[in-house]
């Protein structure tokens, strides 16, 4: 068995999962005045991760035996998480309601990550094509860079939908983020 590079798609997904777990933990323990900033950082991480999965990982997964059903289940989970994020954007981060919603989000996100690691990773790893996982890793990183920074729960979850709607949403998000930065 050869040495697996750390920038293969499975390693990148696992790294994201760990970073998101850390951010969720940090957010749950943060002083109320810091929660807003940490929430926006978490949102950016989650949305970019999800877009990378929708555009790169799940289409690749569909090429594997049994991958369609697993991809559909994970996409449904991501849609639910996007709706939770959109709801959280409207809440005051200093409130107990916000903390309760964060706990709901944490539960959903950690459950989703566990299912990916148990079901998605083995299917992707079973592909024996040389350089396949590294190529997917490069594509995943590229999609994350171009992704929107806010949830768009009504945007299409398909790779094709993300290719067309994603850049527009990302542009709008960057304008909104810049405007928010200036108003501080």
Q: Can you walk through the features of this model?
A:
This protein is mainly alpha-helical and 184 residues long. Helices cover 78% and strands 0% of the residues. The protein has 6 helices and no strands. Helix 1 (9-29) packs across helix 5, helix 2 (32-62) packs across helix 5 and helix 3 packs antiparallel against helix 4. The N and C termini lie far apart (53 Å). The model is unreliable at 168-172 and 178-184 (pLDDT under 50).
Q: Which tags fit this structure?
A:
184 residues, mainly alpha, elongated, disordered C terminus
> In angstroms, what is the radius of gyration?
17 Å
DSSP helix fraction: over 70%
Could you give the count of β-strands? Answer: 0
Structural classification: mainly alpha
